[in-house]
Amino acid sequence: MENDKGSPEAPIRSPGSDQIVGFDDGVMKQSGSSFQMMVPNGNDVGSPIDIPSHQTTQSVSISIPQSPLDAKRVFFKDKDSPARNLNFGCEIDETGPEKTPDRLTTPVKNPRMDAMKDNRYNSFKTWSGQLERQLSVLRGKSLPRNDPEINPPQNIQGESLSADRYFDALQGPELETLRPSEEIMLPEDKKWPFLLRYPISSFGICLGVSSQAILWKSASTAWTHFIHISLRVNYILWCISILLFVVVASTYLLKVIFYFEAVRREYYHPIRVNFFFAPWIALLFLAIGIPQDLHAHLPHWLWYVLMTPILCLELKIYGQWMSGGQRRLSKVANPSNHLAVVGNFVGALLGASMGLKEGPIFFFAVGLAHYTVLFVTLYQRLPTNETLPKELHPVFFLFVAAPSVASMAWAKINGSFDYGSRLAYFIALFLYFSLVVRVNFFRGFKFSLAWWAYTFPMTGAAIATIRYSIEVPNIVTKGLSLTLAIAATVTVTGLLITTIVHAFVLRDLFPNDIGIAISGQKPKAQRKWYRRNTCGSAKDIEHQVNSGEKVVQVPVISSGLGVAVRVV
Amino acid sequence: MENDKGSPEAPIRSPGSDQIVGFDDGVMKQSGSSFQMMVPNGNDVGSPIDIPSHQTTQSVSISIPQSPLDAKRVFFKDKDSPARNLNFGCEIDETGPEKTPDRLTTPVKNPRMDAMKDNRYNSFKTWSGQLERQLSVLRGKSLPRNDPEINPPQNIQGESLSADRYFDALQGPELETLRPSEEIMLPEDKKWPFLLRYPISSFGICLGVSSQAILWKSASTAWTHFIHISLRVNYILWCISILLFVVVASTYLLKVIFYFEAVRREYYHPIRVNFFFAPWIALLFLAIGIPQDLHAHLPHWLWYVLMTPILCLELKIYGQWMSGGQRRLSKVANPSNHLAVVGNFVGALLGASMGLKEGPIFFFAVGLAHYTVLFVTLYQRLPTNETLPKELHPVFFLFVAAPSVASMAWAKINGSFDYGSRLAYFIALFLYFSLVVRVNFFRGFKFSLAWWAYTFPMTGAAIATIRYSIEVPNIVTKGLSLTLAIAATVTVTGLLITTIVHAFVLRDLFPNDIGIAISGQKPKAQRKWYRRNTCGSAKDIEHQVNSGEKVVQVPVISSGLGVAVRVV
Amino acid sequence: MENDKGSPEAPIRSPGSDQIVGFDDGVMKQSGSSFQMMVPNGNDVGSPIDIPSHQTTQSVSISIPQSPLDAKRVFFKDKDSPARNLNFGCEIDETGPEKTPDRLTTPVKNPRMDAMKDNRYNSFKTWSGQLERQLSVLRGKSLPRNDPEINPPQNIQGESLSADRYFDALQGPELETLRPSEEIMLPEDKKWPFLLRYPISSFGICLGVSSQAILWKSASTAWTHFIHISLRVNYILWCISILLFVVVASTYLLKVIFYFEAVRREYYHPIRVNFFFAPWIALLFLAIGIPQDLHAHLPHWLWYVLMTPILCLELKIYGQWMSGGQRRLSKVANPSNHLAVVGNFVGALLGASMGLKEGPIFFFAVGLAHYTVLFVTLYQRLPTNETLPKELHPVFFLFVAAPSVASMAWAKINGSFDYGSRLAYFIALFLYFSLVVRVNFFRGFKFSLAWWAYTFPMTGAAIATIRYSIEVPNIVTKGLSLTLAIAATVTVTGLLITTIVHAFVLRDLFPNDIGIAISGQKPKAQRKWYRRNTCGSAKDIEHQVNSGEKVVQVPVISSGLGVAVRVV
Question: Which InterPro entries match (chains A, B, C) (predicted)?
Answer without folding.
Answer: SLAC/SLAH (IPR030183), SLAC1/Mae1/Ssu1/TehA (IPR004695), Voltage-dep_anion_channel_sf (IPR038665)
